[in-house]
Design brief:
The chain contains no helices and eleven strands. With about 120 residues, the chain is mostly beta strands. The strands form two sheets. Strands 2, 4, 5, 6, 9, 10 and 11 form a seven-stranded mixed sheet that branches. It has a four-stranded antiparallel sheet with strand order 1-3-8-7, with no helix packed on it. A hairpin with a 4-residue loop joins strand 7 and strand 8. The radius of gyration is 13 Å and the shape is globular. The model has no long low-confidence stretch (mean pLDDT about 95).
């Protein structure tokens, strides 16, 4: 069983920055496909960023150039650095982890609100 706990969400002004953390326990962290999703009210959950165990990253077009996904295998933690935040980024952000040959695991989510 892989467990994930997100933290770092909160209220930030447009143009500001925020870093989300995802602490992972269970399994071998370095083997996981890590991802960050978000879900805004009335919208589908969308994949924001992902990082494969081999280091390849993918980003949604809406966040490309502003968000950076990273992982620290020594700390069993993934991060999402969010810069130049926009009101449209307001959503609940979820961390995900998929071990090899395993199912997708979700954290409980953390609220990010971008507002003046």
């Amino acid at each position: 069983q892989v467990r994930l706990v997100e933290s770092g969400g909160g209220l930030v002004q447009p143009g500001g920055s925020l870093t989300l953390s995802c602490a992972v326990s269970g399994g071998i962290f370095s083997l996981n496909l890590m991802g960050w999703y978000r879900q805004a009210p009335g919208k589908q959950r969308e994949l924001v960023a992902s990082m494969h165990s081999g280091g390849n990253t993918d980003y949604a077009d809406s966040v490309k150039g502003r968000f950076t996904i990273s992982r620290d295998n020594a700390k069993n933690t993934a991060y999402l650095q969010m810069n130049s935040l926009k009101p449209e980024d307001t959503a609940v952000y979820y961390c995900s982890a998929r071990p090899p040959a395993g199912s997708l695991n979700w954290g409980q989510g953390t609220q990010v609100t971008v507002s003046s």
